[in-house]
Design a protein that fits this description.
single chain, 167 residues, alpha+beta, 2 domains, five-stranded mixed sheet, 11 strands, elongated, binds dinuclear copper ion
Length: 167
């Protein structure tokens, strides 16, 4: 049997189905535009898997053997390495200057933890075997607690640390 010509196929599309197909294309275009605006104009980042690591040996070598703040450009650019463990963060306090671009690298050595910095939109998971990365800027001085947002055991509620943002 021969396949129907495209002309014939086109004629058999129900008007309602055609309308839904048009609507689906419009929705896809809206999604594409939204993602572009979010990513390039609003700077919204989806926390991506930066790197795969071995959770058992990650702390044997730098930078993870000594997690904490690295000054890249004084006053302007900082990297922060944080290890999540049941039931604390290493380190539990980090200090960065106001207005600087701060990139957080977070991982876990045991189970899945969360990493949410209060009063900011920084919120992602800390997964064993992966490094999560996210860049933010603190525009006001103060203390911003980072808390665990994934249930990780009996000490979950007490798992937190603080970012001290100084003038
Ligand atoms: Cu760590 Cu909940």
């Amino acid at each position: 049997m021969s396949t129907p010509s495209s002309e014939k196929t086109k004629m058999h599309i129900d008007p309602t189905e055609r309308a839904w197909m048009r609507a689906a294309i419009v929705v896809l275009v809206i999604f594409a535009v939204s993602v572009t605006i979010a990513g390039f104009m609003l700077g919204i980042q989806v926390p991506t898997e930066e790197q795969r690591v071995n959770p058992q040996t990650i702390q044997d070598a730098p930078p993870w053997s000594e997690p904490g703040v690295r000054e890249i450009v004084p006053g302007e650019k900082y990297d922060v390495y944080i290890v999540s463990k049941r039931f604390f963060y290493e380190p539990s306090t980090v200090e960065v200057p106001v207005g600087a671009e701060v990139t957080f690298y977070v991982t876990s050595t045991d189970v899945q933890h969360g990493f949410k910095i209060q009063d900011t939109n920084v919120n992602f998971m800390a997964v064993p075997g992966e490094v999560s990365k996210l860049t933010t800027t603190f525009n006001e001085a103060g203390t911003y607690d980072y808390i665990c947002t994934e249930y990780c055991g009996l000490g979950h509620a007490a798992m937190f640390g603080s970012v001290l943002v100084t003038q």
